[in-house]
Amino acid sequence: MTSTNTVLQQWVNEVADLTKPASIHWCDGSDEEYDTLIQQMLGNGVLLKLNDETYPNCYLHRSDPSDVARVEHLTFVCTPEAPDAGPNNNWMAPDEAHGKMDSLFAGCMQGRTLYVIPYCMGPIDSPYSRCGVEITDSAYVAANMKLMTRMGSAALSRIEREGTFVRGLHSTGDLNPDRRFIMHYPEEMLIQSFGSGYGGNALLGKKCHALRIASWQAQQEGWLAEHMLLLELESPTGEKHYIAAAFPSACGKTNLAMLIPPESQAGWKIRTIGDDIAWLHLDESGQLRAINPESGYFGVVPGTNPKTNRNAFDMIRHDAIFTNVAVTENNEPWWEGKDEQSPVTDWKGGPFDKANGPAAHPNSRFTVAARQNPCYSTLADDPAGVPISAIIFGGRRRELAPLVYQARNWNHGVLIGAGVASETTAAATGAVGVTRRDPMAMKPFCGYNFADYWGHWLSFSEKSDKLPEIFHVNWFRQDEDGHFLWPGFGENLRVLRWIIERCEHRIGARETAIGYLPHAADIDTNGLDLDNEVLESLLVVDKNSWRQELAAMDEYLREYGTRIPAQLTEQHRKVVEALD
Ligand code: OXD
Ligand code: MN
Q: Is the CB of 249 under 6 A from ligand 1?
């Protein structure tokens, strides 16, 4: 196969000239092709087959131990002018980056197959979707892209019809961390990734395209590309609402998107539209609508069990690729938090010994097609997307942030989003458990200057008077002994219900300096083992702590200098004044 799109064909030829592959394969996205890729990887040891009776069509990939997470320090945004990338990104001049990458890519595919992967982010026939082509020398990437995106012939046809696409060039290289770079050139709609096979660095449709390049494109075109899950909430009377929620990596987005209502919440239903990324557009009536650009999940495995996420536990029981989990005696995948059986082989492939740390890597992952999710919503395939009622921001905060509060208006909500902070997790390399500022959960993913990004968010208040309500939640408050105050998981539905009541203007709230908080009686605690005092403490606004938080935010925002939008500073000032 080749392409009638001359730009694409020429680019493939140029890349082949540079990288010198042994052969070129254009992916058609068929099931047969997927099977062939799997067989080939089983043959050369890139994949290991797991127990075919208990985990049919499931495979294990062990990555290089130095290559198990996103590498933010090696990820660059290469705009012609450094300030356009902003203090939130590493910057490199495009010429320098091209020079560096060309020399890394030169001859790097000798003896390997070059895969051309045309893909569509979003339903093939949606006007909100955007296409890309990833060139890679990794069969693992090609197979994962088949699960994660709408990949192959249909995407290529759309590219040939429209003529535009994001280019992504990837090679695993020699996996030497000193020769590893993830480069983004937003103005060239180009991504170059070298030296890593890890999902976030190598499956270029996901973080690189659907967030970094798309956020930039969205600013140009008037929409939003966000690190958000999308869910449908249906009440016992059949009323449906759609919620978009942004949380930093590994804060339970997948769990919330697949939430199973506890018995006490009989009649409520949650269906998943997306678990990680949302693209949001205003329709002609001013309603914000969202699509999930992905068609699969690349989720964190540890902690997944029937209590935390029954749907995910069942979903990864067949046709899944596991990366960096441990293995049991009978060749089943194993991870911390899986109560069944025990590991004999750790994620590196050696005999499991507790002294060497966890059996599964804390950032071990599953890749599955979204359709395997027992609570999958077919609206994920609706070209029109879903109308959003509420946007939720959240972080992992032991202290300070109450269980839930609501912004006074859109612009105040933008400030709340810009104030998101969280304790770090294993999804990226670096120290775990340190609080870092992660505005809109986009710190590692915004492809341009955050100040301009906040300005773009603020501009929506002038474009529509039907914008969703904005909220902040925190499932992670702890007492002095480190116990979680809120039960979390399925019980989070109780908070979503309050949020919907507020969106529908059906209940009141307590106005505080930071926004609207629930009256304790309005959070349904029926059937929960939760003292009233604990609930009250989850809903406290401690003015002194908040003054410190606002001061920390002020210091953070100052890093963006004069580019900070005046309306954001104004919102910040209003909260400070209200606290006084
Ligand atoms: C992810 C992440 O993999 O946010 O989704 O790190
Ligand atoms: Mn994510």
A: yes
* Nearest-angstrom CA–CA distance, 507 and 198: 46
Phi and psi at 59, nearest 5°, equal: -135, 155
Output the pLDDT for position 200.
Answer: 87
Residue 563's CB: how many other CB atoms inside 10 A?
A: 15
- What is the rounded distance in angstroms from the CA atom of residue 289 to the CA atom of residue 218? 14
Ligand 1 atom nearest the C-alpha of 298 is 3
Please write the tens of the pLDDT for every residue from 427-443. 666 676 678 899 999 99
Q: How many CB atoms are closer than 10 A to CB 56?
A: 12
Relative to the CA of 365, which ligand 1 atom is closest?
A: 3
Work out which ligand 1 atom sits closest to the CA atom of 253. Answer: 5
Question: Burial of 409 by CB count in 10 Å (0-12 exposed, 13-18 middle, 19+ buried)?
Answer: middle
- Amino acid in the structure at residue 13: N
Please tell me what DSSP assigns to residue 351.
B
Rg (CA), the chain: 23
Question: Which residue among the candidates 78, 120, 251, 446 is catalytic per the annotation?
Answer: 251
- Residue 410 CB coordination number (10 Å): 19
Roughly how many angstroms between the first and final C-alpha of the chain, as a whole number? 67
Could you give the CA distance from residue 482 to residue 353 in angstroms, rounded to a whole number? 28
- Cα 427 to middle of ligand 1, angstroms: 6
Q: List the residue whose alpha carbon is closest to atom 2 of ligand 1.
A: 249
What CA–CA distance (Å, rounded) separates 242 from 272?
10
How many angstroms separate the CA atoms of 291 and 281, rounded? 9
**pLDDT, tens digit, for every residue of 354-363?**
999 999 999 9
Q: Which residue has the tokens 């914008």?
A: 467
Query: Is 251 known to be catalytic?
Result: yes
Report DSSP state, residue 354.
G
Ligand 2 centroid to Cα of residue 282, in Å, is 23
Supply the DSSP string of 34-71, one letter for each residue.
HHHHHHHHHHTTSSEE--TTTSTT-EEE---TT-SSB-
Residue nearest to atom 1 of ligand 1 (CA): 249
What is the number of residues in the chain? 580
Q: Could you read off the pLDDT of 95-144 as tens digits, one per residue?
A: 999 999 999 999 999 999 999 999 999 999 999 999 999 999 999 999 99
Amino acid found at 390: A
Residue 91 CB neighbours (<10 A): 16
Distance (Å, rounded) from C-alpha 537 to C-alpha 399? Answer: 11
Task: Give me the domains of the chain, ranges plus CATH numbers.
Answer: 6-46+68-222 (3.40.449.10), 296-370 (2.170.8.10), 389-579 (3.90.228.20)
Q: Which ligand is nearest to the CA of 428?
A: 1
- Could you tell me the distance, in angstroms and rounded to a whole number, from the CA of residue 359 to the centre of ligand 2? 23
Give the residue carrying structure tokens 């969703």. 468
What angle, rounded to 10 degrees, do the helices at 450-463 and 214-221 form? Answer: 40
pLDDT tens digits for 136-187?
999 999 999 999 999 999 999 999 999 999 999 999 999 999 999 999 999 9
Tokens 């670096």 locate to 430
Question: Which residues make beta-bridge pairs with 26?
Answer: 116
Pocket of ligand 1 contains residue 367 by CB under 6 Å:
no
Cβ-proximal residues to 118 (8 Å cutoff; 6+ apart), any chain: 3, 8, 26, 27, 131, 132, 133, 151, 152, 153, 155, 156, 159, 165
